[in-house]
Amino acid sequence: MGFLTPWFLAGAAAIGLPVYVHLLRQYRQTPLPFSSLMFFEKRTQSSIKHRRLKYLLLFALRCLFIALLVLAFARPYIHSSAMAKANAARTLVFAVDNSFSMRQGDRFSKARQAALDEIAKMSGGERGQVITFGGPARLLTDMTSDKAMLRGAVQAIEPGDDSSSYAELSRILRSTAESVKADIEAHVFTDLQKSSLPASFSDLRLDEGTKFVMHAVTDKTLPNWTVENVDAPRRVFDTKKVRTVATVAGFGTEEATRKVTLIANNKTIESKTVKVPAGGRATVEFLTLDVPYGLTKCEVRLDGADTFPNDDHWFFSVERADPKPALLVHSDADGSSPLYLKTALESATDAAFTLDSKTPAQATGLDLSKYAFVILSDAGALPQGLEDKVDKFVQSGGSMLVSLGRNAAIGRNVSAAGIPILQVHTINPDTETVQTVAQLDASYPSFGKAQNWDSVTIFQYVKLQTPQESPEVRVAARLANGLPLLVDRKVGEGHVLVFASAFDNVANNLPLQPVWLPFLEQTTHEMGGVGSGRGNYRVGSFVDLRSVKEKNVPVEVIGPGDKRLLTLAESSKAVTFQFPSEGFFDIRRASGREELAAVNADRRESDFALVPAETVELWKNTGIAAKREVGTQSSAANTRDENAELWWWALALLAVLAVIESVFGNRQMSAGKEAA
């Protein structure tokens, strides 16, 4: 309770007026004529009797009248929101965790039954809403008092393969409290997985007035083994040179020996045993993968020795094909670069390409469309016919790698790239320091793996007109003097990579260094399409379905059980697709290419460690201790609007008291006259 104009309370001093009237002014002497008083004895008469209050009820009524009058001017109020919260019915939220970990044992059935029990406790006038947070939070109902609708929504929930996030749960609870403009009571049914906590505790913040009730379906940590990951090639060219590495992890487990099996198209390829340390990880390596040509569904499976078999496997897909042809164009006098390039590509673990080596004159009559990519190794000026073919090849989506050496034509542009060649510079070791690679863009595919380029020295390089970087132009590597070494430029639908030195042991020592093989392998795989596209996805992740040029061209996505997952309208317009569950998804693109995506659950869901009890308490307290900041005049005005003023009650009592005081006053005056 408060007063809007508290300074009027000073008027309470007027209560002294009834005291003055009833005490000080009540005794009056009336002079009467009398004879001489000389024969009377002089004495002092007590006035105590005259100073006693008379008419006590009337005195009390007059004091109360003045007090109520002062109170009315002071404008007392009670905050109406506090009254509403005390009297309003509850607003409930039933949040059910249907993430991958809830598939363990009877966890999900317990959570669903607990939610139904809480809905049954709702009384008349109370509202509720059902949400799930196994993945992105979903609202299954609006706020409703219909218990049958709430029960139906809970009974329709099924456990999924996505991961839960307590930060996402808190976000949706804050949003709900804001939308309903009332305090909410959130009942959360979950297995309290520690891995679901966000990195920052502030992300768990609840809105002011949110009562958080946790219904944990388990109170103990469960030991669990899982196939955490599989590293396998996306494409297979030689089945005898395939290396597949599976990682087996134990969460809260003791040391144990586990059996791991490699499976392709439901056929066992090989089985091995591995010792997994207590609460640790171990790897298993398979050195062969005998699969047929085309797309193959593969799996690494762990023998079932725990209470959660759902994560004892890992899906992956491979595509077997023959090595693709690639074209190398070099000058007549160049015998070094063909040797280094061909040897490096053929010595790769899984040789994806066969290199067709030609001189410019020999390459003029070739059909470039049959090649995965083209390498121009310091080829010099090309014949006009080959120049035109190269431009068309790149414009239509092909990739080309151009190395520049002493044959570079100063003043001309790099073929198809349009970058001017300014100078061919050979370092004089007597007066100059050899150049080194000073800057590498680690996000660029050619440098995707950790590589040490410190030992690479450049003796001859071509000065290029430094292009301005943009979405179409990317400088992936620079020399110590700041000049570009590797430039990637998008031309039409294709790409041109320009390396400002030659691939030999004269212009630089790159072909003799350990970084040469991984650099060339990653670069050519990306140009030839071997490195593009992912084979493995996580549940809830997205995949691109089409490019801008493929607008309105149908795309098909066929999920587990040969179920078509896109409607007719979606197949023509959808740009991306989100994987809803584990399994294999066949993606048939507009270009006619077919891909097999293997989808697995997030293995953080395999760790059944529980959130500490003190963390849960702190989480609950954020809804109690949080205070909204009121910082604007508008906010203050809203606060005043919510105050329930009581001054009119005081005025009503004043009117009643005025009538009662008048009645009692008249009676007392009449009684006084009769006594006189």
How would you portray this structure in words?
The chain is of the alpha/beta class. The chain folds into 5 domains: 2-28 and 46-74 and 646-675; 91-221 and 609-625, von Willebrand factor, type A domain (Rossmann fold, 3-Layer(aba) Sandwich), CATH 3.40.50.410; 224-320, Immunoglobulin-like (Sandwich); 324-527, Rossmann fold (3-Layer(aba) Sandwich); 553-600, no CATH class. Helices cover 26% and strands 27% of the residues. It contains 15 helices and 34 strands. A hairpin with a 2-residue loop joins strand 25 and strand 26. The longest helix has 29 residues, at 647-675. The protein is elongated, with a radius of gyration of 44 Å.
CATH class of the largest domain: Alpha Beta
The domain count comes to: 5
CATH architecture of the largest domain: 3-Layer(aba) Sandwich
Please report the total strand number as a whole number. Answer: 34
Write the layout of secondary structure elements.
Layout: E1 2-3, H1 16-24, H2 48-51, H3 56-74, E2 76-79, H4 80-87, E3 91-96, H5 107-120, E4 127-132, E5 138-139, H6 147-155, H7 166-180, E6 185-190, E7 211-216, E8 224-231, E9 235-236, E10 244-251, E11 256-264, E12 267-276, E13 281-286, E14 294-302, E15 313-320, E16 324-330, H8 336-346, E17 353-358, H9 360-363, E18 374-377, H10 384-395, E19 399-403, E20 421-426, E21 435-440, E22 457-458, E23 460-464, E24 473-479, E25 484-491, E26 494-499, H11 516-527, E27 536-538, E28 542-544, E29 556-559, E30 563-564, H12 568-573, E31 576-578, E32 583-588, E33 594-600, H13 613-625, H14 633-641, E34 643-645, H15 647-675
Parallel strand pairs: 3-4, 3-6, 6-7, 9-15, 16-17, 16-18, 18-19, 19-26, 27-33
Antiparallel strand pairs: 1-2, 2-34, 4-5, 8-10, 10-13, 11-12, 11-14, 14-15, 20-23, 21-22, 21-24, 24-25, 25-26, 28-31, 29-30, 29-32, 32-33
